[in-house]
Amino acid sequence: MTEPRIRPLPLVRKFDFVPEATIERIHEASLRVLSRTGMQIRSQTLVKALEAEGADTDLDALRVRFPRDMVEEAIERAPSSFTMFARDPDADVVLDGSSCYLTCDGCASEVVDPRTGVMRPSTKQDLMDTTRLADAIPEISIAWQPCAARDVPTHVQPLHELHAQLLSTSKNIQQMTVIQPHHARAAVDMAAVVAGGEEELRRRPLLSAFQCTLSPLTLDGGPLESAIIYGEAGIPCGIVVMPLTGATAPMTVAGTLVLQNAELLGAVTCLEFLSPGIPTFYGVCTSTMDLNSGSLSLGWGPEEQLYSFASAQLARRYRIPSQLGTFGTGAKTQDWQAGAQHALSGLTSYLAGGDMLCASGTVYGGRVFTFENMLLDSELLDIAVRVLEGFPDGGDELAVDVIDEVGPGGHFLAADHTLRHMRELWQTRFFGRESWEDWEAAGRPEPKHRARDRALQILEEHRPMPLPAGAEEELTRIIERHTEEGAIDG
Amino acid sequence: MGDLIRTLRDRLMAADRDGALTATRELLDTGEDPTTILQDGMAAAMLELGARWNRGEVFLPEVVAAAELFKKCSELVEPALIATGQRQEGHRVVMATVKGDLHDLGKNMVGAMMKTAGFEVLDLGKDIPAPAIIEAVRDKQPAIVGLSALLTTTVPEQRNVILALEEAGLRGKVKVMVGGAPVTAEWAKEIGADGFAPSAPEAIRVAQELLTAVSSTGT
Q: Smallest CA–CA separation between A425 and chain B, in Å?
């Protein structure tokens, strides 16, 4: 039996947990923020372009205020469903609200070496390994870059990162570190080399991307220009906002949601007026500030679950696919904290009906990537899938005949009915299910040890789909050219 | 002939009721040695299934279903075995769920699997008071007595049975195995039981070890 390349998670039900009236109040408040306060768009050229499209601008302050009509028009322009293609057509990701997909995160700056267990700065080789792991696991549908290539020249780092991703996966590649137009053009060139030309890339773009705002209410010029270049090439480009309650967002849950939503709609408005019809998504990694240290809270709790529920509902209101920051944990290893936080956020985002759930594989607030976590997260999602699928209730499942056959005081262990249905029972891959004695005898193994062993086995065995002939040389040439140009510029 | 033995093995492992019984009958009809049917066919299948269970390749319901089928096949082979005078008495085991406890599924599973491993099992049933167990040990002279208890409130009764065996002067004549969900190796040791197993297949292994120890020390 061959495993499927990707495993879309069925969205049988979506829970509108936040009251509809609250969602409307957040929506109305966000539109007020956009028309009254607006955003800073840090590029005179782009501010002028937005003014020509009807925005109310202050060129000196780089401030852009968005009239209500303009925002509503932008929401209309954004496609409500689209496909994120993969080099392997069996791994195409169809964002139409019927399925949810799991992706990695988040360009961690460190990895835990699976062989030594030591945390260290991540390298290009780590990015290739982590991406190859994502390529092998069906539960991971989108190959968002799990860690940064910190051992290459920084002026061409995004190109090396894309290079590592292209070599390591035939799933949809989600690029996030390209935030300058010249890098975006190079990224499009590189993707075209692998796709088999610009036209083929436009027909089936194997790349997707997103750009981030700077909370509160700021969008840099480079990311927006890069997004426009992606749009011209037919590559989807989402918007991801990461406000921090109490620091870069108001202290209240509702206020944070208003800021998040305003920022997202503002960025989507810029994008849909400067690159009309570009497929985009509603991406959020909204979290809270640690009240003691002022940095990102590592104690993920109820606020993050509420942000996920509300964000999925807001995205649905706008009929834009959502990408929810999920699997957040402040844990440093795969302990109770990591398990509890990943299980809670995973289940919440899934029940909320998010289209894409990200951050699989990370610990320490997304800063550190661990190989075993990606496997453990896939097991958690597997449980959520089985819950949402529900259970069949046909005649054989209601089991009246076998109940009669066994009768009072008997047992069902060896009944034909049991043998027929027992393989439907969910089976764990990583949870401990051995007896206490066996556990002691085996040296007290934990789920993370089984997951690490499996990760190492995958790294040993899994070979990604090879690139087309000549592509690798061409990719290297593109990177070399940019390396030299950058050196001359510098 | 070897092919039919293999077919019997495969069908028994797959818990294919009609298939295994048909293969057993065909083997008997063709005049195959009943000991060969029992050892190379049926017992080998159970041994292989036990090994697969140990490796996590099959589930317990499959093992129990095969064990129950083994019993049915044995009933077919038995007359032929008796006719050839080859039937050997297996080691005798007396089993009971102790007084106050009505849970007998675990004990039944162990019993069914012990039978497939060649033991002669005398199952006294559930909620059995100590005197009845003592009487059975005295009359039937088993090599092993197995005491099952599922509740923390009935587990102490295992100790009472062992004390009663001592009072009756029978403790040295029989090995005592204890089992049940709350039972641990520590508890077994504390009450002076000879063997403990956390699962049915493990119980077979422990029972065989106890008997090997008995025969090697000659007691």
A: 11
ipTM: 0.70
Query: Is there a single domain that holds both residue B96 and residue B52?
Result: no
- Give the pLDDT confidence of A253-291 residue by residue, as tens digits: 999 999 999 999 999 999 999 999 999 999 999 999 988
User: Which residues of chain A have a CB within 8 Å of the CB of B68?
Assistant: 414
Residues spanned by the domain of B15: 2-84
Q: Is the pLDDT of residue B90 over 80?
A: no
Task: Give CA–CA dist A173/A28, Å, rounded.
Answer: 35
Q: What's the distance, CA B182 to chain centroid?
A: 21
Q: 């509503």: which residue's tokens?
A: A72
Q: Is the bond into A216 cis (omega within 30 degrees of 0)? A: yes
**CB-based burial label for B60 (10 Å; 0-12, 13-18, 19+):** middle
Q: What CATH number corresponds to the domain at position B62? A: 1.10.1240.10
CB contact, 8 Å: B20 with chain A?
no
Of A149, A148, A150, A130, residue with least CA distance to A140: A130
* Rounded CA Rg of chain A: 24
Residues B11, B99 within the same domain: no
- Mutation test of the interface with chain A: which of B105, B189, B196, choosing the one with the most A Cβ atoms within 10 A? B105
**Same domain, residue pair B43 and B76:** yes
Measured between beta carbons, the chain A residues lying within 8 angstroms of B15 are: 414, 419
Tokens of A320: 């834009």
Q: How close, in Å, is residue B103 to chain A by CA atoms?
A: 9
Which candidate from B62, B105, B108 shows the least CB-CB separation from A419?
B62
Inspect the interface and report whether the beta carbons of A414 and B185 lie closer than 8 Å: no
pLDDT at position B219 is: 44
Q: Label the pairing between strands B144-148 and B175-179.
A: parallel
User: From CA A363, how far away is CA A336, in angstroms rounded?
Assistant: 12
Confidence (pLDDT) at B109:
80
CA A206, distance to chain mean position in Å, is: 16
Which tens digit of pLDDT belongs to each residue from A86-113? Answer: 999 999 999 999 999 999 877 899 999 9
Q: How many CB atoms lie within 10 A of CB B132?
A: 14
CA distance A303 to A298: 12
Residue B59's pLDDT is 87
H or E segment to which residue A141 belongs: strand A140-144
**Residues B162 and B100 grouped into a single domain:** yes
* Residue where a domain stops, chosen among B84, B111, B128: B84
Residue of chain B whose Cα is closest to the Cα of A433: B56
Chain A residues within 8 A of B64 when measuring between CB atoms: 413-414
Domains of chain A: 9-19+73-388 (3.20.20.480), 395-424 (no CATH)
Please check whether residue B184 touches A, CB under 8 A: yes
Q: Which residues of A touch B184 (CB under 8 A)?
A: 436
The number of distinct structural domains making up chain B is: 2
DSSP reduced 3-state for A64: strand
| Domain boundary pick from B84, B115, B139 | B84
Within 8 A by CB and 6+ apart from B157, the residues are B98, B99, B100, B101, B130, B147, B149
Contact A437 B64 (CB under 8 A): no
Does any CB of chain B come closer than 8 Å to the CB of residue A422? yes
pLDDT tops 80 at residue B86: no
Closest listed residue to residue B144, CA positions, set B96, B202, B103: B96
